[in-house]
Amino acid sequence: MQSVIQKVEAKYKKSAVVNVKSGDTVKVHQKIREGNKERVQIFQGMVIRCDRKDSHTSRITVRRIASGIGVEKSFLLHSPLVLKVEVTKRSKVRRNYLTYMRNRTGKSARLTGVEFDRMAVNAIVDTKAEEEEVKLAEEKAAAAEAEAAKKAAEEAVNEAKVQEALAKHDES
Fold first, then answer.
1. Given CB 3.0 to 4.6 Å as the disulfide criterion, which of 57, 71, 81, 98 pairs with 48?
2. What is the pLDDT of residues 119-165, one digit of tens each?
3. Class assignment of domain 4-124?
4. CB-side exposure of 104: number of CA atoms within 13 Å?
5. What are the residue ranges spanned by the domains of the chain?
């Protein structure tokens, strides 16, 4: 029998999540809300930490170098803001926490790559995330269509004013 906490956790847990390990290079597609607009931002970097893999609070820490400065972001894998996690490269590591990579730069920061089946690892079907992406695309298309209709209406009003002015000019 499940406790109330387990039922709530199961409700918010995604049905399928990519198996991410430390040392992987990943692209994390995250939904960003700016004012009343929403967009998808991609953060690409190396996973230096994986926490609580089987829990609904599983978290990965991704590190990348941006303009010569190390930037780290933590992502909750079951968060509705994380739309997709895509593994692009898998490396051979012997630790779970790669915090020593913070001190490395240049060639010493490279890890040995390992062959893996990219299609099998990334082939996770999460219908909710796909529906969310489709919904965002539809909203964007609807906003663009509304803007085009508004512009066309303004053009029609302006054209009517021009025709009216020409008619008055012809009368006199």
1. 98
2. 777 777 667 767 877 888 898 899 999 999 999 999 999 999 999 88
3. mainly beta
4. 14
5. 4-124, 126-172
